[in-house]
Write a structure and sequence with these properties.
Shape: globular
Number of domains: 2
Number of helices: 8
CATH topology of the largest domain: Pectate Lyase C-like
Number of strands: 30
Radius of gyration: 22 Å
Largest sheet: 10 strands, parallel
Distance between the termini: 50 Å
CATH class of the largest domain: Mainly Beta
CATH architecture of the largest domain: 3 Solenoid
Strand content: 15-25%
């Protein structure tokens, strides 16, 4: 990881200079001087500083490991000294390591060790910026729900148990990240409309998985995905008009490069020639076919003025982070800029009407499908047969339950199945009636009772019982 660390250290220095200039030039977003709070010199814990902060404030966190779970406030900036120095460790306790807030910025941390069913960063009903972090050893690296214009940029997102990034009903910018060795999906998109550009996506079983999603996917490297590089789940009725727009990506050494979509403009199927993945060096070697092979429009050139490279080190924003008092303004500018190129290209739109009226039987059935594929398939597999990519990590001698088994589930009541979903395998009633392993996690707090009962109905469909 040494070369990556040097890359992000240089970028952090640039970020600090930009931030200093912005603060020196004037006021915070609301016209008042931003307050700088320091951890641990002024506040013992990060959460103490957050509790004392107001929108527009900057919290600087000195090098060290902070064993806590934190909840951000709207409009604040939380800045570490760089992910190689400043760590937020959730200690694998139940819960998310970081809970986001609208217009908040978090940058310069390693964020690790979420709860079993939780995330390094969870952002729900808000838009925020996640910049220059290393997000590692969580259940999911980043969870985005019901959010507009979040910015996920210049991060290393690696070795998370299920997802690198998971998004539902969201329209984020996901740019210039290294997404590496997440155990099931690099990036999972459901009912969303993301811009996914200039990422290096390596050694995830599935690089990007999309369902009911209109996505712009350009200038990315898909390498060593043993299942598939880019997967769109085709459902003609549900996804009418919802298509990805793929361009200038490079694919190599994947089980399959893409599914249910055609090769896009400028896409390449050649070895991207990364310097040394095993040592964390994801830069391009001299002579790589990804050099000067990105979008040829000059507005997307690299910082040196040359045509954009493909991957995390290419494009105009590879060395720039938000650094402004209110990240929504920065993202809105970026969205406007991108629309100059993409607005005339009909790449589809999310048609939530295809889910049926909110709260209707049809709608709830579609949401159950999304929840099943998001939460259950990593262990139980896409057909529910207990053959998901995490099946060998459950417990020695145990296998995930085969949800397609009519013989088994026809003998169980809806209430019994619901209790296992809600309370997990450790709950007495579940252990006695279903004989589930304690490795079966509880979904209480993750899904509502109605959503869990809808999962029961979805399992009934799988087993035809």
């Amino acid at each position: 990881m040494r070369n990556i660390k040097m890359f992000f250290l240089k970028r952090s220095i640039i970020t600090l200079i930009l931030s200093f200039l912005l603060v020196a030039m004037g006021s915070g977003f609301n016209g008042t001087e931003a307050t700088v709070l320091s951890v641990p010199s002024q506040y013992k814990t990060i959460q103490d500083a957050i509790n004392a902060s107001s929108s527009g404030d900057i919290i600087r966190v000195s090098a060290g490991t902070y064993k806590e779970q934190i909840k951000l406030k709207a409009g604040i900036t939380l800045r570490g000294e760089g992910y190689e120095k400043t760590v937020i460790d959730g200690e694998k306790k139940n819960g998310n390591v970081v809970v986001g807030a609208n217009d908040a910025v978090i940058e310069g941390f390693t964020i690790r060790n979420s709860g079993y069913m939780d995330a390094g960063i969870k952002c729900d009903n808000a838009s925020m910026a996640v910049l220059n972090n290393r997000i590692v050893n969580n259940n999911a690296g980043i969870l985005l729900f019901n959010g507009l214009t979040s910015l996920i940029a210049n991060n290393v997102i690696e070795e998370n148990k299920k997802f690198g990034i998971y998004m539902l009903y969201s329209t984020p910018f996901v740019e210039n990240n290294i997404v590496y060795e997440n155990k099931v999906y690099g990036i999972y998109c459901a009912s969303s409309k993301p811009m996914i550009a200039y990422n290096t996506i390596v050694s995830n079983p599935t690089g990007i998985y999309t369902e009911v999603t209109s996505s712009i996917v350009k200038n990315n490297i898909f390498d060593d995905s043993n299942v598939i590089g880019f997967q769109i789940v085709e459902s003609p009725r549900d996804q009418k008009g919802v298509e990805p727009y793929l361009s200038y990506n490079i694919y190599w050494n994947n089980g399959h490069n893409r599914s249910n979509t055609e090769k896009g403009e400028g896409e390449i199927e050649k070895d991207p020639m990364l310097v040394n993945v095993s040592k964390g060096d994801f830069k391009l070697k001299s002579g790589s076919p990804a050099i000067n092979a990105g979008d040829p429009d000059s507005k997307y050139n690299d910082a040196d003025g040359s045509r954009a490279d493909i991957g995390a080190f290419g494009g105009p924003y590879a060395m720039i982070t938000a650094g402004k008092g209110n990240v929504r303004d920065w993202v809105s500018y970026k969205k406007t800029r991108e629309s100059e190129t993409f607005v005339e290209k009909d790449y589809g739109s999310i048609n939530l009407a295809s889910f049926g009226e909110r709260g209707s039987k049809e709608y709830r059935g579609k949401i159950a499908m999304v929840n099943y594929y998001g939460y259950c398939t990593p262990c139980h597999g896409q057909a529910g047969k207990g053959d998901g990519p995490l099946m060998d990590e459950i417990e020695k001698g145990m296998r995930p339950r085969d949800h397609s088994s009519a013989e088994y589930f026809s003998q169980k009541t809806d209430e019994e199945i619901f209790n296992v979903i809600k309370y997990g395998g450790a709950k007495g009633i579940s252990r006695l009636t279903m004989k589930e392993s304690e490795a079966m996690p509880p979904f209480e707090g993750q899904l509502s009772d109605d959503e869990m009962m809808d999962l029961v109905k979805f399992i009934r469909v799988l087993c035809n019982c």
